[in-house]
Amino acid sequence: MNPMQEKNKSIWKDVHKKLGESVVKALNAKGYKAYYFSSSEEAAKEIANMIPPGSTVGIPGTCTVREMGLIELLSDKGCTTHHHWDPNLSPEERKAKFKEELMSDYYITSTNALTIDGTFVNIDGTGNRIAGMAWGANKLIFVVGINKICPDLDSALKRVHNVATPPNVTRLGGYDVPCAKLGYCVDCNSPSRVCRATLILERAPFGRDIYVFLIGENLGY
Length: 221
Hints:
The chain has one domain: Rossmann fold. The protein is built from 8 helices and 10 strands. It has helices at residues 3-29, 40-50, 63-67, 70-76, 91-102, 128-134, 153-172, 178-182; strands at residues 33-37, 56-58, 80-82, 106-109, 113-115, 120-124, 139-145, 149-150, 197-201, 210-215. The protein has a 6-stranded parallel β-sheet with strand order 1-10-7-4-2-3, sandwiched between helices. β5 and β6 form a beta hairpin. It is globular, with a radius of gyration of 17 Å.
């Protein structure tokens, strides 16, 4: 790493910390239990420590959680993780996994976008992930990379369509949609369109413990 890269790394770390702490303050004011961590490793250890051994943990479609190595940490301490990303699952087995995720003691997910004032924006094709965010009898944990922060709701929606969805569709493969070919959204009407249900969380829903771990790294899409 050359001197300019080293200096910029330090600058970005400071900027991310200030931004993260500002968003954490907004989230706490909206009923969440929010925290800022400079690294995903620190955040992953804290999350693993807060979940008791033997707990069940639902993990929907999220690259962020997998990048952090959380599944491995939780398995190592005796937790059972339910997730539907096994390509060998049959359609019926996959549906069963959706239910197991939603009914787990803890539900850990990321977000497509998060505004500076603490509004979560997510879009699903199946709806299982946003269902788990909107309601549950379990504890909900968001893990959010600093790259997901947007100035306002309009920019958050644009981020979901133009930044998060094209690489996600590419990851999934087999979807004949324009954004997979163009790299940006054209608000298509393709039968394979994955943007089908939108959830905007303006405040923490009633009657549930919701934790947010904001991380000063670029994670997920």
